[in-house]
Amino acid sequence: MRIVTIIFTVLISIASVFADESDYTANIGKTPPMGWNSWNKFHRGISADIIREIADGAAKYKLNEAGYKYLVIDDAWQASGLGPNEELVADPNKFPDGIAPLVKYVRDRGFELGIYACPNKLTCAGFPGSLGHEKLHAKQFGDWGCMFLKYDFCPTRSGEIGLAYDEVVRRFRAMGDALHDQDPRIVYAICEKGHAGKINRRTRKHAGITTPVTLEERLKAFSWCADVGGVMWRTTGDISANWDRIMSIVDEQEGLACLSGPGAFNDPDMLEVGNGNLTEAENRAHFTLWCMLSAPLILGNDLREIPKDVLEIITNEELIALDQDLMCKQAKKVLDQGDIEYFVKPLADGDFAVCVLNRSGQSQDVVIDWSKLGLDKDAYTVRDPWARKDLGVVKKQLLCTIGSHDVFVVRLGEAK
Length: 416
Ligand code: GAL
Fold this sequence. Notes:
21% strand, 416 residues, globular, 16 strands, single chain, 8-stranded parallel β-sheet
């Protein structure tokens, strides 16, 4: 009997060694990564001073307690050329002490630093890329202590629009392997935006393809990302702080839910909550939809001073709990009534999150009918996470009024 137990134990350990070898994402980013990225607010205008001030702001507002972890420096941190050994060099004017001291600064305040690189000759802002230097650059990131890499495909700058699908995947795998060897805990954020699968608007135009993108093409375009080690992957071109753009990005997520799950997430791009002229309702709707989609919550606003209404949105723990639900199910749109759309997200404890989106320019009276959403119970307990209010047991239908460009969200539980 003992011998059998020993053999069994040995087999189990061999199996887990192999599982560990082949499954990059086994232990990282099980729920969607949360953090902040410099691009949406600062674009190229970043520096060590700004990153330190952002870390101070993030600490002041206790964003780590809300779940935010990575502070990511996006493009334009680099010097204009590679160093003598082909290594990446930080711009000496913007980052005079390099990147490593910032890792410590950020870590001392309860966060981890992330960085940006590119699998082409040049990044999107025209700085040196990592093509052909994946191992060396991954080692630099690891040695500095960076725990997150955004790896952004930039075909335009490097004259590589139309590059073959297999070659794009090969490039992302090269960095995935290098990062994994360096430190498997580093979150690998793929930003390829559907170029290889020719669903990207620019790539499609370049290839002379005029037919609309099919769901099959969209699924193929991102089917390789988890396999090369991606914890998250951008499914769209760039977001902007504009309601119509946010809505078009939400539309682009339809049908992709099957790609997403624990440790592997569709990324509809970084948040614009608190940027531009988005209204409070638009900020709330944008944040809610990202939580419903189990999207990475990467803030894009200025963390040095956060207005009260914006802070309340980005730290609402009941909404964040929907995003961070352990089952990591991306919500599906289950009913479309034109301007009014209904999304349902199943949760790990058997509850459901229901989000009703009002895309129209007027407020709307809405009847939420459980049976029309594919929910099979007659009655549910209802909790409104924005109002932080229990609405009791509701049978069959719930009536609500939703303001223009706003959402109404409820968490439904079993009615005993
Ligand atoms: C774009 C990317 C943006 C930002 C920018 C930097 O390709 O989608 O999120 O990283 O490059 O140049």
